[in-house]
């Protein structure tokens, strides 16, 4: 990374070096991603501590839904901090975001659990997640714009690539801290109270990030606007009320951010969930594979950013999203054969069928973690999906209790509509016990056999999606910054980014699970990222202009 100067400070102060600009921006962004990823990684433990009134499965789903709620509020943060950034300056806006994110994360480490405070505990947790999501909504746009507006035009892709790689550093840092705490304390102590350590550690990272960002000056492009008195007075009106800017917002969302949300979150969130939840690979093995994939991804963001400086942004982006598009279904099928061959063999040898009244089967989409699915059909399908077992749907007589046929064996589900909470929990547990016994008898493995896992094969599949995600994400910041005019750049860039990543990407796990339970095919959830990626592949090819070399002051 070069150490050239990056613009004069106001009042004739010495210019900030490019190295300081990139390090301060990337470090703060990596810290915010660390905060966000700690929560996602500890979702199962958080579910047990804050949603203990629910069953284990429902508690984990509620925690994952709460993780998604953080994504839901990111567009709100984009609007709030985008307006501040376009009216008052980039530096102040993304200094506020890092303070909010750090304070909320540290507070989670101090919250009482459900056993200590009852329903107040999850309510406080929800509030902290809303603050986290809102803060992260303002962070990315500020950091990407700040670095890009300081960068030489010919190095803009490579310089902003460091902002992109901060996500990898944040995720890697989260996994390392959790692994060290877990190993040092032991599983029992970590589950009881040690899970708080990764959240509390963030206070030190927060101090470093604030110190580094206080050293920064305003970006040159915004300073020029401010000196001329031409900064936007009404950023929302200009960004979304003028067609020339609104069409760019829509283009960024459809051509770039649909694919970004689908591909990146499929690679780094849904794929590990698929390995652990559907293919029953052990959590420690999944974490090891993910950490290795994240380590490989870190330099690739900068590489593809650099490549976009040489060959153009559009085609690097298009390569990444197209690679993912063609890989989704064949790669996941092959990964199942690598990770749990016994499961693949059992599905071929002894197929499973759910016989149920179609009117009693609902779409189990629950992004807020509050829905209760109590019909015999829903209970049967949810249990099979959680067991990682594909099944065929067969219509049964109206009003009939659902039945799961495993070869010649039949397991009757339970109807929970008339049961109270305790009765429903007990009935579900009884059904799941009977179902697991029948599946085991048919040769379905309860977990993947470590001796039969082809780790190199699984990692090879992971690498395909790592390359796709980094090729798409590496040049993305420079592309988005170059697409929008300076006056509304923070607002106009941030909203589509966080709608794409927050809503398209953040809700991948819940939508995919709903599709799986509806169809009975554990691979059917891939249609969700596939469709969004396909839209972006077509829109990028025919609508997205090449932005490399554009002046940021136009």
Specify the helix fraction band. over 70%
CATH architecture type of the largest domain: Up-down Bundle
Taking strands numbered 1, 2, ... along the chain, how are they ordered across the largest sheet?
2-1-3-4
Q: In percent terms, what proportion of residues is strand?
A: under 5%
Give the overall silhouette: globular
Q: What's the total count of β strands?
A: 4
Work out the count of structural domains.
Answer: 2
Written as H for each helix and E for each strand, in order along the chain, the element string is HHHHHHHHHHHHHHHHEHEEEHHHHHH
The CATH homologous superfamily of the largest domain is named MFS general substrate transporter like domains
- Structural class comes to mainly alpha
- The count of helical stretches stands at 23
Low-confidence stretches: 7-14
Mean pLDDT: 86
CATH topology of the largest domain: the name is: Growth Hormone, Chain: A
Largest sheet: 4 strands, mixed
**C-alpha termini separation:** 27 Å
- Rg, rounded, reads 24 Å
What is the CATH class of the largest domain? Mainly Alpha
Folded structure, characterized:
The chain has 554 residues and is mostly helical. It has 2 domains: 17-338 and 451-542, Up-down Bundle (Growth Hormone, Chain: A), CATH 1.20.1250.20; 344-441, Glutaredoxin, CATH 3.40.30. It is 71% helix and 3% strand. A 4-stranded mixed β-sheet has the order 2-1-3-4, with helices on one face. Helix 17 links the parallel strand 1 (352-356) and strand 2.
